[in-house]
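ok so for the tutorial part 2 we go from a plain amino acid sequence to predicted structure tokens. step 1 is just haveing the sequence, like this:
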Amino acid sequence: MTKINLKGHKKIWVNIILFTTTALVITTLFPLKGEFKYEFTQGKPWQHNDFFSPIDFSIHKTSQQISNETDSLMETVNPYFSIDSSISNSVYIEVTKKLQKTLPDSLLNLKNNILNSIKKYYNDGVFDDDVSNLEKNDIELINGKFTKTISRNDLNTVDSIIYKLENKFGHNINLISDIFKPNTFYDETTTQQIIDNEVYNASKAYGYIKKGEKIIFKGEIVNENYYRILNSLKDEFEIQAIKDANVFLIIIGRFLLVFLLLWFLYLFLLSYRKDIFINTKNILFLLIIIFSFVVTSRLVISFDKLSIYIIPFAIIPVIVRTFFDGRLGLYISIVSVLMIAGMVPNPYEFVFFQISASMTAIFTLQNINERGKLFTTAGFVGLTYSIIYLASSFIQVGNFTQIDNNKFVWFLGNGLLLLSSYPLIYVFERMFGFLSDVTLLELADSNQPLLRNLAEKTPGTFQHSMQVANIAEEITRKLNGNALLARTGALYHDIGKSLHPQYFIENQTESVNPHDHIEFEKSAEIIINHVNEGVELAKKHKLPEQIIDFIKMHHGVSKVQYFYKSFVKKYPDVIPNETKFTYPGPRPNTKETAIVMVSDSVEAASRSLKLITEASISNLVDNIFDNILNSGQLMYTNLTFNDVTLIRKILKEKLISIYHGRIEYPK
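step 2 — the prediction. this is what the tokens look like for a chain of 667 residues:
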């Protein structure tokens, strides 16, 4: 019986579980409603057969109509005022005390009459003098549990009650006039509640269509009236459909559509980007990007005052391109937008807007490390939205009067939010251990502590690293690899030599060679250790793992040939322990690490050429390259035969360019 090796398929199963789980979670985010199966756009012909209403429904008013009616209702609602009884009691007590002190007991009736009059005024409400500025003729006065309407002309203010009391009781009122203060104030909360209730109770419909009644014939233009009727039907149909439908089947249908989109992404990665597919971390990152935008869209849709166009979907290709490439960025954007289109009104328009914005972002943002470019991209994305909206509006309504200027505000906000790509890139770098061009540029700065230390302690090694970096960058760029990654990796590949610089020939300025006084095995150990010591140094300074790979892999599992052959020559009868003369590896596993290995070997060997001609350089490159290939150092890379041929060609051109002044040409 054949034993099935499930371990080899572990990553595939993990990816299937991740994709399926994501599809299930996203399905739960969709609003539970039926689907209106007809697509229509204002200003375009009705593409379907003659259409008759399948249900009874009301024709909804437009948002502008409702807004206008709301404004009218606000004008008809009187402002509400409330009496603060604590102020009434306070004034009454103070007046009583003052009258008792100033008026004799013989005037008891006068005191009681004054107090009764004051109590009546304060029970009716005493307003601030600013009440005269009210626009309404009437106000609603809340006094305890009761409300009554009062004309503005009948309102009592502090000045008016003093005037009335003086006319009635004479100069005695001067004794207490400074105590009076208003006890009735504008009640904004109650007023707004009344307005809201009026708006809520107002009719949202202005017409009615019965089941079977003609809506629109095939070929008729969907004008503003038809568009309003069809939208009203769509809203009512989706509500009624869910009541009669099998909810479980709706959920299953949603899940299948979402899963199908993610399955296409799965197959795309499996077929064209296996380097991403085999890395669960990368898969998780892409799924988180999609899920985040679906969640954000669902939240925005749930708020009537927000527009879906405030969400900067162009961030998707910007971020994905930063860590991978533009093609994958556009693909992820398309998958996300198609998924979200099932949530939004006018899905065709939505998809067209977002895919256009994503393509604009990809074409205008070549390098994220140029900060000014992102501002330019944000501007172009906003411009793209605006042009598409204007074009759609011209098609739909054919004039400028119906253009909603608020849309341009949303587009502006979208462009500004696109600038958040920078902090998001930093967050994802830290979360998933990715490397952006911005980080690589920072690491490639020669003022970085490790590179500065390398230049000070091992100037020969530093110059060698610079040459390797220039060569590797040129080759990688022509092979469509990550040239900046190759350059940065090359700059750091020999940092381990800074711990024992005197043992490496490029740093030996005197005729004394310390290897002359130690055994070959010890010499090989010191040379080999620059890899392990470089790795430890890189980890201590928290270099990214992708850069550490260049340090580990730049010699692969090759031998320290000079000391190995010297040992064999001196001790022909002794079988050498090859492990002591072999680098620990691993072998290069990417295009970039392979290019740095070859560039390093060729550049180092070229320094030992005694006769420098085009022929000697060509032979040197071919011999070293053949040794690297024959020893299997590049067996885990994805280099093609054409890549290898191109690398040889560029290496020869670069070395000839470097040594141009020393090449002897025939006379």
